[in-house]
Amino acid sequence: MGVTSEGNILSVNGELDHDSCLRLLAAMHNTVESKGYRDITLDFSNCTKSLASEMLPICCRSQLFWKNGVDITLILPLEKRIKSIFLNANWAHFIDFRSFEPSRYRGYTHAPAIRFQNGKEQAKAVDKVLDVLMAALSHFNRNEIRYIEWALNEVSDNVINHAESEIGGLLQVVNYRQRKQIEVSVCDGGLGIPATLRRTNPEYRTDVEALDAAIREGVTRDPQIGQGNGLYGTWRIAQKSGGSMQIISKYAQLTSSESKGLHTKINSVPINGTLLSARIGYGDVIDLSDALEFSGDTHIPTDYIDLHYLQDDNGNITFNINEESDGFGSRSAGEPVRRKLINLVNILESGYVTVDFSEVLLISSSYADEVIGKLFIELGPLDFMNKIQLKNVDSLVKNLIDRAISQRIKQ
Fewer CB within 10 Å of terminal CB in the chain, N or C? Predict the structure, then answer.
């Protein structure tokens, strides 16, 4: 069990947990730096479990090796479900891009890992993740989406402004539906928090001291770049929502959870750069109003709705279904659209959602039922009429929608 090596072949047996992740990183380093190999095979054929918080550092190390002329070959897990996760989560692509194409996964349990190297790519990555969340989860409230978006922006922005990572960073979000938690993971291949923070704060003598200070309000590498509230605010959001947070940077590790409190320790094996993994709770009535309180002032961030949908003076928004849907021929194409509409209805403090069918000339009966028929039943007739308006609907599409609603009512 664990991690074994034979020449330049490194094998993962059983679960890839935190300790075996560090052992694999150490074995990768030793195979190249000590043994002198310029190619590595990572054999995950007997791997039985892996999570984003363990896989992203492996992906980042692989990206660094590729950049420096070291070839990597990936052998996928034999177990079908684990193999599909490697492919869908984009881990296979980032480890061995020559053998595996980027993920095209469009499901609801996670957003595939996304690489970003500059501010524009970082903004696009956050937008893509939020789009997945809006389509994946029903019954978000507006505060939840605001604070999740704020945390996504802050922790990914740190990579651009502070990490000095030659490969940029990787961002991934996983939805743990049964626990009602979103796990945000960001990893880079940079200098690490302790090294960058000590440049202007030499009083933090050890990696652990530096990492512990990094989540305190107002602590930053450079006040001209940031105010030092990103990690602190993310920690507060995780804490207030009943979640948890873990940061690993070089030799230092920090973990925080409601049940176990805040702990730091030294790892025997360093990672390149920094891994941050935060679990943020959703779905319960949680007061996050003071989660982003800095210097006594409460910060209320702008959110996905403000930036992506046009609202009129009465709070009404327009939802262009032609832009929001990947197709109109199947029930599976309609499900994420319905979830977005439910979230928008719940998020709006007043007003209604106008669903604009411009340029949509034909939809399938199953699509009409999945989006509008189920939405009618879920909201109820009165709320549907008060909160949803259909606009620019072709006559054939209208007949299919009317039929879907009628059949749902009869059922």
Answer: C
Give residue-wise pLDDT tens across range 6-64. Answer: 999 999 999 999 999 999 999 999 999 999 999 999 999 999 999 999 999 999 999 99
Higher pLDDT residue, 364 or 106? 364
Q: How many CA atoms lie within 13 A of 109 on its CB side?
A: 10
**Distances in Å between the alpha carbon of 393 and those of 226, 246, 336, 371?**
48, 49, 20, 14
Q: What's the predicted TM-score (pTM) here?
A: 0.79
Please spell the DSSP secondary structure of 125-175, one letter per residue: HHHHHHHHHHHH-SS--HHHHHHHHHHHHHHHHHIIIII--TT-EEEEEEE
* pLDDT computed for residue 219 by the predictor: 53
Cα separation, 277 vs 288, in Å, equals 19
| 84 Cβ contact list (under 8 Å, min separation 6) | none
For 301, other C-beta atoms within 10 Å of its C-beta total 14
Calculate what percentage of the chain has a pLDDT beyond 70: 88
Q: Smallest Cα–Cα separation from 237: which of 327, 345, 340, 151?
A: 151
Distance between CA atoms of residues 342 and 43, nearest Å: 43
